Amino acid sequence: MPFARLATATTPTCHIGLGLAAVGRPGYINLGRDHDLGEDRSVETLRARTHELLDAAYAQGVRYFDAARSYGRSEEFLADWLKSRPDVDDVVIGSKWGYTYTADWTTDAEKHEVKDHTLATYERQRAETAALLGDRLDLYQIHSVTPDSPALTDKELHAKLAEAAAQGLSIGFSTSGPAQADAIRAALAVTVDGEPLFRTVQSTYNVLETSAAPALAEAHDAGLTVIVKEGMANGRLAAEHAPDAVRAIAEETGLGADAVSLALILRQPWAGVVLSGAATSAQLASNLHAAVVDLDEDQLTRLAALAEDPDVYWERRGQLPWH
């Protein structure tokens, strides 16, 4: 498993990774995006922003970087950075397939991405990813599996994924939606020749959406590395948008609402890697403070009270506009 390399890191931030969803394309659903990125979102501007973030993350001990075919040019930006840093040989690189980016570098497209979990899409996007990342790719994940995803039952696809695994690529899946727990458990049951297919799971878990926790614990116990995404709830837990309880605890700790929110995830025994979705170096630095936040029982109780019904959470997420 490539994630074994993370266990050898000695920095306190070794369990925080950097996701590139917010900087690999001009439009996304994160709150505060206009302030974070400004008006200039040209390809070269966001390429430079991505490289700045990657440099800052690596310098501060981050060793997992996460992209996707649907994150605009995230794989391209990441590949460029890796080529410019030949000394960087101790990172783990993950990407995802299953969504196609369709916004053509605009922020007002009718559709920004189209989901398709068929074998044909896997083969096309696997070739596209290979052309950019080559043998630097460690982990390839099915993007946003739901319980009814054909990727969970397509035996021909499973055989192709197992073939890639036999060649050294770790195979994983990510989840989205109010039935994440069901999707995780269904994926855990997928085997090829009696062996589990998936080695990692990447799911949404945060102060407001905790419903996947029991299934993620089961995945961890089954030997999968658990990667947590959307720990900031697409900006809903950032200081200017965070619930009063989060802001109050941040004041008590002397750190940011983001650090408090991510600290809650870091303390979960099943969490292997927690992604920062920072769009600026300042946000990244603040996110990394999560490693030193020590939440007491009273603070944990107050945070637990903020969890929303998953249907309510995902309905609200679905209403967030693309900025």
List keywords for this structure.
globular, Oxidoreductase, NAD(P)_OxRdtase_dom_sf, alpha/beta, NADP_OxRdtase_dom, TIM Barrel, 12 helices, AKR2_Oxidoreductase
Description:
The chain is α/β, with parallel strands linked by helices and 323 residues long. Helices cover 38% and strands 15% of the residues. The protein has 12 helices and 12 strands. It has an 8-stranded parallel β-barrel, surrounded by 6 helices. Strands 4-5 form a two-stranded antiparallel sheet. Helix 2 (43-59) packs across helix 3, helix 6 (180-188) packs parallel to helix 7 and helix 8 (244-253) crosses helix 9 (257-266). The two termini are 37 Å apart.
Tell me the number of helical segments per DSSP (H or I, 4 or more residues long).
12
Low-confidence segments, ≥5 residues, pLDDT <50? Answer: 7-14
As a whole number of angstroms, the C-alpha radius of gyration is: 18 Å
| The CATH homology group name | NADP-dependent oxidoreductase domain
CATH architecture: Alpha-Beta Barrel
Mean pLDDT: 95
Principal-axes geometry comes out as globular
The fraction of residues assigned to DSSP E strands is: 15-25%
Main sheet record: 8 strands, parallel, barrel
Strands in their spatial order, largest beta sheet: 1-2-3-6-7-10-11-12
Strand tally:
12
